[in-house]
Amino acid sequence: MAKVTIDGYTIEVPDGTTILEAARKIGAHVAPPTMCYYSKLKTSGGYCRSCLVKVSKGSEKDPRPMPKLVAACRTPVMDGMEVQNNTSPEVIEARKGVVEFLLINHPLDCPICDQAGECDLQDLSYEHGAPTSRYEFKRRTFEKIDIGEKIKLHMTRCILCYRCVKVADQLTDHRVHGVLERGDVSEISTYIQNVVENDFCGNMIDVCPVGALTDKTFRFKSRVWNVNPYDAHRDCKKCGGKVRLWYKGEEVFRVTGRKDKWGELVEFICNECRFDRKRTSNWVIEGPSKIDRHSVISQNHYVLEEPPHKPMLNGLEVVPRNYQIEENKK
Ligand code: SF4
Ligand code: SF4
Ligand code: FES
User: Fold this and answer.
1) C-alpha of residue 293 to centroid of ligand 3, in Å
2) Is 116 in the pocket of ligand 1 (CB under 6 A)?
3) What is the spatial distance between Cα 46 and Cα 44, in angstroms, rounded to a whole number?
């Protein structure tokens, strides 16, 4: 076991644990942001530098600080290590620079982007970015392409985090897409416009931290804060069948995997559950999803904890909106 102190909080973790995982164990208030790391995907992390931290004491044996900021998702803890995340002005300044780099070629078209409201880059920019950019050159742009029957790739928004490539590598049989070219011309693409067709390829949409990979069955149908998420399950032979249904009125607008508090899928789901089961009757509804209050998706989503008290207005009975939704699900 190794004892590590992050922003003044000390925790003991098994040897080999990364600084990021140790910080997550302490809690969200000390965990660095991540754009490429994904705990369920092997070898993820190390690409985006959002998780930079300062190691002010290397270990009990060698207390010298590390000379440069390090990526928390790739650096294992040492016994006696001391780390600064939010408490280091150097880290805060460096993270601002990382956001500026990530946004150099990014269109920032959030008002028309399907990912708005559930976008990690949007959150990262608001929480850690600078209000202006110093970049004055032409940004690179790409045509949108279909990389499968149900997936649209808008490369202009991609931050090359490699998560979708890892999904294809680790969850599907034959990977036909990846990162082509090098440097500032690198892009995610399929080999000579091959099509990504696999039972689990839909998970690439869920792991994409930005609006580069989107669900063609949901694109431009609704803003995410105007749909109501419900946890549901079904008996599925291909995956665990535990999903999130996104309702507008009584219609299921989209099906996604369930995400944990780090924004990562709890379980990967198959394409049949995601794209072909969009009727309430296909599912056993468990109840409204618990969405973090800091997310815009939780806006106006109230959960009734007691039997509804039906208020009267001008002599008429008023049924609260969310109770109507609950009733419709029965
Ligand atoms: S990917 Fe995120 S930051 Fe980029 S345009 Fe879409 S919502 Fe905005
Ligand atoms: S398409 Fe999305 S998941 Fe894939 S590398 Fe780009 S940003 Fe990452
Ligand atoms: S999350 Fe650590 S480098 Fe991207």
Assistant:
1) 25
2) yes
3) 7
